[in-house]
Write a structure and sequence with these properties.
This protein is α+β, with helices and mostly antiparallel strands. It has five helices and 14 strands. Helix content is about 15%, strand content about 50%. A hairpin with a 5-residue loop joins β3 and β4.
Length: about 300
Amino acid sequence: MIALWFVALLLADGQVALLAPRPSRVADELRRELEASSFVLTTIATDGRPWREQAPPGLARGVAVEDDERRVSVFTIAGGEIRVQAEMSVDPDDRLARRRTAFAVVEYLRLLDSAPRPEPKRDAIAPPPLPPPTRSRIHPWAMGAATTIDFDSFVGEPTSHLLIIGLWRFGEHLDLAVQGLWPIVGSQFQSDGTHVRMWTFGVSAGFVLRPVRPEARFQPYLAVGLGTRFVLADGTPGDGAQSRVAMVPAGTASVAMGARLAVAAGAHLFFEVEGEAAHHLFAKTAAPYELAAADARAGHTAVGLLFEF
């Protein structure tokens, strides 16, 4: 009881109380949006007991999350009586539904602040509840960039690429990934008296499997993909003959493992290690060193940032 009176004193200046079970993804989403909207928030854990019994004396307004996280109530207290001003249904497994509910709660609290009303009578009819948010079919997506350090079985010296990646969320634990590689640092070597400069480009698509929920701050993952590698070679013979420029395509298959760490809202730092096998395509006139580069096995290490939208 002393603890409830202490919370009531904190809430006397118009703060908002959030009553919810622990843990609660819906409550986490509400907390982020309320604090981002400059509401002064105090969280009260219901711990399996009815939230109406946990409302501290002197509370003016609050938000309550049911134990099953499928209903959110905005309420006020007038004359010691709890009055539910709005009730909203929510799917706790749908992130977009949780965000829409949080936005609706913020707007309803702002409406209560901007239009204060006199003390209602006991037989007054509460305003109709806001319509429940509909389940969105739009999957979140993300884009990111990284720099890579690369080794292959042919050249043997490190190269570097710019990695551009796009993700489309298919479900709770599965993403579709599309990525491209653009050379930053190429390679140079001698082959049978020919000085060769070489760069590689690549595009691929595949799937990313995440064993943890999307809300987790640390997210390890495993990825597989198929794609195409393009080897651009510029060979200059040592005897002064005409130089040769050719591009050789190759099909690729890759497996990668990595992890993402949330560093801010919607921003992740990620680290990835990838192995890639390749085989040349349509290269009947290619030089031996061009075929060897197209068929080389490669390893990539990448560090970059990923942003959710």
